[in-house]
Structures are given as C-alpha cells and as structure tokens.
Fold these 2 entries.
Entry 1:
Amino acid sequence: MERKILIEKRDNRIRTYFLEDGDIVEIHSASSDGDASGAHRLGDIYVGKVKNIVPNIGAAFIEIEKGVNCYYDMKDAKDSFFTRKSGNRDLCIGDELVVQISREAAKNKAPTVTGNISFTGRYAVLTHGNTRIGVSSKIPKTQRDGYKGKLSGYQNDRFGIIVRTNAKDVPFEEVTAEIDTLKEEYESLFYAAATRTCFSCLKSAPPSYISDLKNVYMDGMEEIVVGDKELYTRIQSYFRSEFPDKLELLKLYDDPDFPLGKLYSTQTALEKAMRERAWLKTGGYLIIQPTEALTVIDVNSGKAAAKARSRADSEAGALKVNLEAAKEAARQIRLRNLSGIIIVDFINMESDENTQQLLREFRFCLAKDPIQASLVDITPLGLVEVTRKKVRKPLYEEENFHLQAGKEAL
C-alpha cells in the first residue's frame, strides 16, 4: 500500500491528511495558535490533587490546575504513584499523585486522567501499572511469540511493555534501544515527581500534528508533504532529533499560485467529511448523525430502490447497497474519527445468509482501521452495534469548536 501525508496550515488550523493509494482516509485538525482547545493535551502528565470522591460511580475528580477538575477511575488508584498521601485508604481527598490525560475535554465534559502512565515511542509503549509484556496483534504470530520470548528479561513489577505495529519491519536491537530510552525517561520522571509541587506539569505532550507523525505506520510511506514553511521547519527539527532516518520523506511544498490544498483538493475532502450525507456509487447514501451518547449511521437505498422489479431483485439490490454501505461506513468512521458506540441501520434483508455475508464484510472493513474498532452484535431489530476506541476528539468536534470560537470572536 502506498501511503502519503499532507500537512497544511489554513484558517488558524493545522490539518493533517493521511492518504492510502491516493485516497484521503483520515483527517486530523488542531489549533495552530495554542488556544484553550489545546491547553490540556492528550498525554500531558501532571501532579494532581484529589478534590472529590464519588463512590457510587467508582470515580474521583482530580484537579490538575486551579479550576480544572478531571475524571479519574478509582480502579487506577492501586497502581498510582502518590507524591503526598493523606490517609490509609487507596484514595483520599487531598492526596497528590501523578496522572496523565487519557482523554481530552469534549463539549461540557472535563478531561479524563489516569494513574496508569504511558511513555510512547515509535516502536514500543512503556506502561506504568500494567506490567505485562504485549505485542500488537497486527504483527504475525510467529514474530509476536519471538518478541515475547526475547523481552521476558524486561519483566518486572513496576512497568510493562507493548510492542507496536511499527516494530514489524525493524531489527529487534532497534526496538530494545528505544525501550531502554523509554525506561530512562520513566525513571527520571518518577524520580522528579517526588520533589515537585502540586499542579506541576511533568511532561507536555507534543502538538497533535507531531504525535500523528510519531504514531503513524510508516510501511509504504512515500512522502510527508508540508504546505507551510514555518511548519516545515518545526517538523524538520523534530525529525532530525527523533527520526533522522525518515528525514528524507519530508518535503516542503510552497507554491503560492497553486497551494497544497488545491493540488490535492483537501478543502473539498474536508467539506464532504463534515456533511451529514455520504453518497454511495449504487445510488444509495449514508446519513451520519453524532449525538451526545452515540453515533447513528442510517443506510438508505436512495436511487437504487427504483431498479427493483421483484422481491428477488429487491433482496439482491438491498445486499448490493448494504455491502457497499459497510465499506463506506467503515471508511467514514475512520475518516471522521468517530468513536464510542456507533449504531448502523442497514437496509432490512430477509435472508439470514445475506445478513451473515454483510456482517463478515463489515468486520473485514473495520479490521483495516489502525484504531481498535469492533463489530459487537446485531440486535433483534436489525441494528448493527460497533464500538471504536476513543483516542482523540472526532473531526466534527474539532472543526465545530474552531467555527464556534470564530463566531464568539466576532
């Protein structure tokens, strides 16, 4: 697969477009001026203070900055690193501990923090609290087993290691060298934490467009094209220190007469990804509606319905539209970065065999997503339930926040 990344700066936003075989498959959007939307970024590590405990929901609220209270799952307390303890229970009001932002603030929801601190490299993740040695399921089984055996010497009761998909095509020594670097960072941070005051930021995560480049799977990557000179210089500096072997992939495109956005039609792709309706080649379409609790994707036969002349034609037509809709729904979920609970209402079919074929196709398409996405079940009403891990805000939230902030400024 041929991969390419485009990064452009426009309208006070930095947008990253991931292309696979010429098609835009992901769009990430972030503020370019460090406004309030990026004040507390995913991965930031703080010394926080327990402000409140709510036993009936098994949660606490931890202040990481004056007035910024974050949701914290009480299950993390057992493995958390405390810099100041106020009582004998696992967690007490007034305790000070090291926490990491695991989910950014969204709408009226506060950030979520965890005591299970992670240090992410290009090939591996070192995890405090979770002490197991794990390997990405997207690495072949024989190679996974080999990694687990070779890394057994790292087994301990303080931290664990997860080998990422990016490690698949690099020498084992390169992976272990990075693990040793992450281990040094781990030791240094927790040593420093013991002497730091409450609300100290122990580590600031890099801007999201940098994290995107750090986390992306590089296999088949042809080039990373940046359409802004200042941005290019910043990314180039990061690559020189972190990924010198990948520096040659970085390209500056600065033609003022025909900018990057026009060359690759990025504005059109963004506008389509923000629309409620996504068209299918069969004439059908998807209606994509995010709500507070979940996202609903409704499959409509549209123009395709007019072609059916009999019940058999209708069933065959429904299957054809549904199979295309499954592929497009998986594409839109990744493109728009939808997460949490997703309900897909496909066109009703009478044949159980056709339904099973549809579910197999949908599972296959979802499995291509680099973020964990799972088809859970189909309900008695024929609604297909999907869950997708939330890593960052969905595209519509990022863009709508930007538009709302612009209106308020006026």
Entry 2:
Amino acid sequence: MNINTYILKSGIRLLHVKAVGDVAYCGAVINTGTRDEMSQESGYAHLVEHLLFKGTSKFNSNQIISRMEDIGGEMNAYTTKEETVVYAAFLSRYLNRCFSLISDMVLDSQFYEDSLSKEIDVVLEEIDSYIDNPSELIIDDFENLIYSGNPLGRNILGDRKTLHRVNRKRLVEFYRRTYTPDQMVFFVMGNYSFERVVKLGERLLGSIEPVRRGYIREKLAAYTPQTKEIKKHTRQVHLVMGGRSYSYTDKRRFAFVLLNHILGGDFMSSILNMHLREKEGLVYEVCSNYTTYADTGNWNIYLGCDYDKVEHVTEIVYSELNKLIEASIAPKELRLAKVRLLSYLTIGGENKESWILGVAKQYLNTGRVMEKQEVESLVNAVTADDIRRCAAEILNREQLTVLKYV
C-alpha cells in the first residue's frame, strides 16, 4: 500500500492510502471516547456521535442521509473507550461530496435541542437492549472492576441517570473540550493522488483554528484483583476472568497476541476450546480476548456453562493457565500459531474497510503506520521464552479478577 501523511496548519492530520478500485473510503478518527468524560458526563462521547448525524449549519438530518444515500454510499460511526469514528464507503468519483459532508459533520454539528431529546431516548432504548445481553454486559462490568474509579472502566453507552440530566449546553461544552483539531485524523483510501487529497484537505480543514487539547487523561490507579458475583438469574453461569495487560505501544504485545491466540483466540484449535468444548463438552462458548489502550490493556477469558459445572470448568481453566506459565510452548506449536495468526491478519487485511480504520487509529495514536513486513517480522521474532514470560506476568492466578453472573 502507498501510504502518505500530512499535517495541516490547523493541526488536523491527513492520512492518504492509494488503492486501485471503484470503491473508496473516507472518514475521521477523533481521539475522544469514554475515558474523556468527567463523572457527570457518562455517555456523552457516544451521544455526541449520534448527534453528529442530526444537523449542521448546512444540512439537516434528512439531508445528511440523502447526501450519502442518493449516490449509493454508506456511512457509519462508532464510539469506543478512546476514539470516535465516522466514515463512509462510496464510488470513487464522489470523493469531494463525501469528504465535505464528513468534515462538516465532525466540525460543524449544531446539536439541536429537538434532536438531542430524541437521541437520548434512542440511547436509552439501546441501553435496555444491551442489558438483555449478559454475554456483552459482563465484559463491561469486568472492565469496570479492573479499571475501578477511572473513566476507562465505564460503559460506553453511559447510564440512565446522567443521560436524563444532559442538556445542550453541557454536551456542547464536552464536544468543544474534546474535539480539538490536534486530536483528529481525516483519512482517504482510494484511487486518488496524494496531491488531490492534500488540496481537498486544505480547502475543507485548513482554515480551522489550531486549538490544542487543554487537559490530560486521568491516570490509572494501581490494579487490585477482585472476585465478585452478581445475581442476574440467567439460565447459565456467565464467567469472566482476567486482568490488566500491555498497551498498544508495548513491544511485548506481539508475544501476548500470540499467547492469547494459542490459549483461546479466534481458532477452534485453541487450548480452551479443544479442552472445554471439543474434549469434554462442558461449554458452548469459550474464548479469550485481548484489548489494548493508550497506556494499558486488558485480557480476559469469557465462558458460559451450567451452574453445576462452573467449579469444574474454572479449575480446568486455571490448570491450563498454569501450564503456560510453567512450560514453554513447543517449537511446532509456536510455528503453527505464527502461521495461523499471520494468515488471519493477511485475510483480514483484504477487507479494505476494517484495514483503513485500523490504520487510521494507529496513525492517530502513534504518529506512524506499521507496514505489513514490519508486523510479520515482529511476530516471527517472538520466542517461546517471550510467551512464557508474558504468561507469568499476566496469567498468574494471583493477578486475576473473576466476575460471575449467577
């Protein structure tokens, strides 16, 4: 891929990826998420994302929809703990129209009162739907335990009490404090010259006042493992165990990605799936997940099982974790894990939409983009000793937080 970057006088960064094809992508990644909210602002980042679609000084909400759908394009957005993303896929000849629309939404949304009240109701319905899904809800409750007292642990959707109190003034204050030009990357991927993208960026974004963010995100307190049960009266026990792990700038993350992949990642041949499901039939679903943030990360195992099996299942999990701590991965197993992981990454890279979103996030957070060859080299350089050291640091039973829905 031919990747180019450019910084405008406003402080907004441009990311351009030359790609042949009739379909193009453009969007914005803003370094604003749940962890940028103050205690009385829970859910504001996600609510702002909703309101970006509800009107600017140029277009009302219906016009925003028609500007994209009239040309057969698709627009989407999402909020995470650390970022907000707005992006579109469209036929390449409509770049000016789509880039202009997204820049207008991100930089000139008006947060109209009538739209605000409607979107609060929409988010409240979203919260109700989410509460009905314990396999997703338990992950957020788990993060709230391991990041206790920090905004990073909060649910992205927010809470009912805070959302009922929100008003336009408070939401605009949050938007202005967090949506500063130095925290934005606008990206374009398509069959365009770099010169055209820079020229378009200068015209649409170059005159924006170069405001810099005036605060630093709250630092994390020391981690203390916890064990907790929450009564949910579900038909089976939902269990999550795990703890804090490496950030997305930590070099050890490549070894831990491999370790997570071997233990319970995206393949049926993972240790936990083979033992708990294929061998003993104790669970329907078991997986391990590794999520990275700017200054931390977290890792967890999720599973669901019958009430009378949970103790047995838990001891099996602890046993498998202990094996990874005490003994090195066999050379053949490590080699196969690298092959599977790199194949998985390569296949995923063929999905241009998910690839460009990942690259834009990487550029926002690190100021650079890692080439495919560099990633492959770092993965291939991981040794069995590297993995064992990660296991000793992260998988130790004494370091694990355990949460159950019973």
